[in-house]
Amino acid sequence: MKNVLKAHDLSVYYGENKILENLNLQIPEGKITVLVGANGCGKSTLLRTFARLIKPKAGQIFLEDDLIQKIPTKDIAKRLAILPQGPVAPEGLTVLQLIKQGRYPHQSWLKQWSNEDEKIVNKALEVTQMTDFVDRSVDALSGGQRQRAWIAMTLAQKTDLILLDEPTTYLDMAHQIEILDLLYDLNVEENRTVVMVLHDLNLACRYAHHIVTVRDKQIYAQGKPEEVVTMEMVQNVFRMNCTIIKDPIFGTPLCVPHGKGQKVGR
What we know:
The protein has 266 residues and is an alpha/beta fold. It contains nine helices and twelve strands. Helix 5 (143-156) packs parallel to helix 6 (173-190).
């Protein structure tokens, strides 16, 4: 299996605070990879470092076979797209204006807006079901609509690799599934490599081909959901007792946390 992103001995600091230390990781091409772990463990930092938004203190990152630090910025934007957590659009920006920004890396003074750009933007609108909202202000959209608009902009970049930081945050259950189904379809139908941070372990198991767990500044485990998500892992990574059963619909691991909810017959 070819790896599209590789980190070797990666260390990342915020000021004097060490966030990641000597981390090694490979992201498989053409798959959905989900990063999971306790709050503050460095998942989002790792994703932003992969996108070259954060400069590592030490170590190397390769995008395919190229050292990412040496790739020109505009070329990076043609090869990977990132959707950070809670992006904010300028006030009054319409959905169409937002999505068109995804084509900017492909523009130059020699190559202005083209029919190809128009087709790609329209396709992104269609795939995300945002065609009817093109003239709507982004800040007037609902949470699910707004997230679809940002994903459409990301798709308009037309990159084979998409990084998303908690794309379902603040969304209700129906909209979470809607967004994850969209990303799943993009992976299956267009062979896009998707890497995302998710908090919900059960949704991570359902949608991921590859799960990476982060603990104590390093990778605790990585692999298929059924290989990684165990009672031992949940205890060691999340400090929580649970029972792991098979999801009755999807056959993926289902984590049932132990706690003090209603007991049968109470």
